[in-house]
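Bumping my old thread because nobody answered last time. Still need a sequence for this structure:
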């Protein structure tokens, strides 16, 4: 039956004008042509981007002097960065790390919050103060959500402290790794506020326990890597930052070698299905695959599996 299926695919490929080999020369050329390093393409003040492997982009938080604390510039640039990577054909998988800083992130930059306090002090009307806050909170929410909206899978690599806004950030990622010395804290109640950019919505879904999520968010207690692993916040724990980054890049490289149509369609449907019924998720993937199953990626991948040939190289998307 499989031979008949492959034969049918080959006929379909010919009708569509595709090569019937597992990897055509055209696909190879399209896949690697004009592959541009992220370091040359992107220039951010608070982020550093590089391309450690083809189609893999490493995004490093880059405020080491402030322990990667979030200021307004970082919020803005995070949103811009992941929105641009969403559309970048040279990017198929992303590793997000704390770079060379002592911690992954110390959370919100309190010096930046003091500047906001001065700005608010110049406004007398409470309605206008509220309008300012509304715009800022929406900006910060959209910044975090840009990881989730980006079709490219995001692997967060966390070392030492991941506090406050850092938890918002990593819960919007697809995969989370951490070092043995990592620790986490939903800090917001300790500074007199409720977390408002994603943790309260995403953390319970990530760990699958309303009880534990509420305990962590209501007490602001620290929890270490072993607990984070046990509850499912992270999928792997590593002894060193170097080992963690190596494994994160290896995972990103493996993902980047797959069909970008398949990978991005998978992420899109899994994110959609988080807050939709099973039937709605099934309806969405059916509508997506009406087109995606006609892709050259599907034809090349199936024939490579059948022939046990080398992994096909997929053209840019």
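Sorry it took so long. Here it is:
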């Amino acid at each position: 039956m499989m031979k008949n299926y492959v034969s049918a695919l080959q006929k379909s490929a010919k009708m569509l004008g595709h090569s019937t080999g597992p990897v055509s020369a055209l696909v190879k050329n399209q896949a690697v042509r004009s592959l541009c390093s992220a370091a040359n393409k992107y220039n951010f003040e608070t982020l550093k981007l590089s391309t450690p492997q083809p189609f893999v982009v490493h995004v490093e938080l880059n405020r080491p002097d402030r322990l990667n604390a979030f200021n307004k510039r970082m919020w803005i640039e995070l949103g811009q960065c992941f929105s641009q990577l969403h559309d970048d054909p040279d990017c198929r998988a992303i590793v997000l790390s704390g770079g060379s800083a002592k911690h992954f992130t110390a959370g919100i930059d309190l010096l930046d919050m003091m500047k906001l306090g001065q700005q608010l002090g110049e406004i007398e009307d409470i309605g206008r103060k509220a309008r300012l806050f509304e715009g800022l909170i929406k900006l910060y929410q959209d910044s975090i959500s840009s990881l989730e909206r980006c079709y490219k899978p995001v692997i967060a690599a966390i070392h030492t402290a991941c506090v406050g806004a850092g938890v918002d950030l990593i819960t919007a990622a697809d995969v989370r790794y951490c070092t043995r010395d990592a620790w986490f804290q939903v800090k917001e109640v300790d500074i007199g506020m409720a977390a408002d950019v994603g943790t309260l919505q995403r953390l319970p879904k990530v760990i699958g326990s309303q009880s534990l999520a509420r305990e962590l968010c209501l007490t602001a207690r620290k929890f270490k890597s072993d607990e984070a692993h046990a509850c499912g916040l992270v999928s792997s724990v590593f002894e060193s930052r170097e080992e963690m980054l190596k494994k994160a890049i290896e995972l990103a490289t493996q993902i980047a070698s797959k069909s970008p149509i398949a990978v991005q369609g998978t992420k899109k449907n899994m994110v959609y299905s988080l807050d939709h019924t099973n039937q709605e998720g099934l309806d969405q993937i059916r509508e997506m695959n009406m087109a995606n199953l006609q892709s050259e990626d599907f034809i090349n991948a199936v024939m490579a599996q059948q022939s046990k040939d080398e992994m096909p190289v997929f053209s840019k998307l």
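The first strand starts at residue 47 and ends at 53. Let me know if any region looks off to you.
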